[in-house]
């Protein structure tokens, strides 16, 4: 355990930023599917899905860049909680059984990001330096 802490612990800020970037790109991809019909998706015309696509695409880009991450991640977390309770929970309580694992995962990761902030590789950290 100490080995992992000593070796990876030195890179906590960088690993967090990398995680933020990768998860945000994946999230933005869901929005791109809904808004633009790319990446195996199709354009959604239902207003709920358009709003979801806007939050996912633009929020994902903001989180990826580390620009206003706390706000964007908080909104994204709320969207995923809403998606879980309106789409998935009718299929039963457990996410593994109702297909809601991604929604729960994104919800809590974005909630953590809202609390933690942008991290070191971010537009927000660049703006703070000035």
What is the total tally of β strands? 0
Cα-based radius of gyration, to the nearest Å: 16 Å
Oligomer: single chain
Outline the biggest β-sheet. none
Order of helices and strands: HHHHHHH
Mean pLDDT over the full residue set: 95
Instruction: State which percent range the strand residues make up.
Output: under 5%
What structural class is derived from the secondary structure elements? mainly alpha
**Unreliable runs:** none
Query: Share of helix among residues?
Result: over 70%
**Count of the domains:** 1
Distance between the termini: 39 Å
Tags for this entry?
130 residues, mainly alpha, 7 helices, 75% helix, globular
Précis, in short:
It is built from 7 helices and no strands.
Word description of this protein:
This protein is mostly helical. It has one domain. It has 7 helices and no strands. The longest helix has 25 residues, at 12-36. It is globular and about 45 Å long. The termini are far apart.
